[in-house]
Amino acid sequence: MLSVNSLSVSYLNIRALWDVSVEANRGEIVSIIGANGAGKSTLLKAIMGLVKVQGGEVLFDNQEVTDQSPHEIVSRGVSYVPEGRRLFPEMTVEDNLRLGAPRRCPDIEERKGRVYDLFPVFKERRTQTVGALSGGEQQMVAIGRALMARPKMILLDEPSFGLSPIVFERVIETIQEINSEGVTILLAEQNTESAMEISNRTYILSDGRVAGSGKSSDLLNDPMVKAAYMGVTG
User: Fold this and answer.
1) Which residues contact 70 (CB under 8 A, 6 or more apart)?
2) 38, 65, 83: which is closest to 152 by C-alpha?
3) I need a labelling partner for 155 at 20 to 30 A (CA). Which of 109, 141, 179, 181 fits?
4) For residue 233, what is the DSSP state?
């Protein structure tokens, strides 16, 4: 479904990604792990057309989308949940959700209904401002907003950001539920173990390069991966 081939990205002549290649097959959860500054967020932004690509290509459903605008990429079936959620705190839950749907959307009520089925609490709190919600609830709104575009694939950037382990566990369950409905997930996450436990495959980024990849179940048991990314020694 998604094929990123030899992607290179720079910021002000400083290289952030070096010939990065990543794939996600239809129906998979694929994790991108790595330390802060490894290039995870840049990779997702490049896929979404939010940063300029210096080299390589991005294919989605066998169509090149490299350097297309974000709204064109969304229209093809890719949604994005950015790090830090990037919601509008003074707007209501319902208004934030509405921003994720196409401008002309005759089935808007049906789309909102799907989100409310997934997050029943928001049906009762749809007129509440997002700024009054907890961090976990805001993350759910951000995911709900992404679902309003009816995506084939969602890119999630650090969904654990600012959340307690218990709240993040609920987010993980939500990601799995969305995936079970046929939505492919590309998950960039510093919470390495949680991400790998729910994903089919994992790519390890280090200093803007792919330092390793493989089945998540295999990498979870790799002593070098445990030492470098999970803080497990011995």
Assistant:
1) 48, 49, 50, 80
2) 65
3) 109
4) -
Residues whose CB is less than 8 angstroms from the CB of residue 128 and which lie 6 or more positions away in sequence, other chains included: 92, 93
The pLDDT confidence band at residue 231, using thresholds 50, 70 and 90, is: low
- 103 vs 17: CA distance, rounded Å: 33
Q: How far lies 153's CA from each of 30, 62, 166, 170, 179, in Å?
A: 11, 14, 26, 20, 9
CATH number of the domain at 24-51+61-228, please?
3.40.50.300
Predicted model pTM: 0.92
Q: Kindly report each contact of residues 133-140 with a partner whose C-beta sits within 8 Å and lies 24 or more positions away, as own/partner.
A: 133/93, 134/167, 135/162, 135/163, 135/167, 136/163, 136/164, 136/167, 136/168, 136/170, 136/171, 138/85, 138/87, 139/85, 139/163, 139/167, 139/171, 140/171, 140/174
Q: What residue segments make up the domains of the chain, in order of their start?
A: 24-51+61-228
The pair of structure tokens assigned to 213 is: 């990849």
Which of 35, 36, 42, 1 is closest to 20 using CA atoms?
A: 42
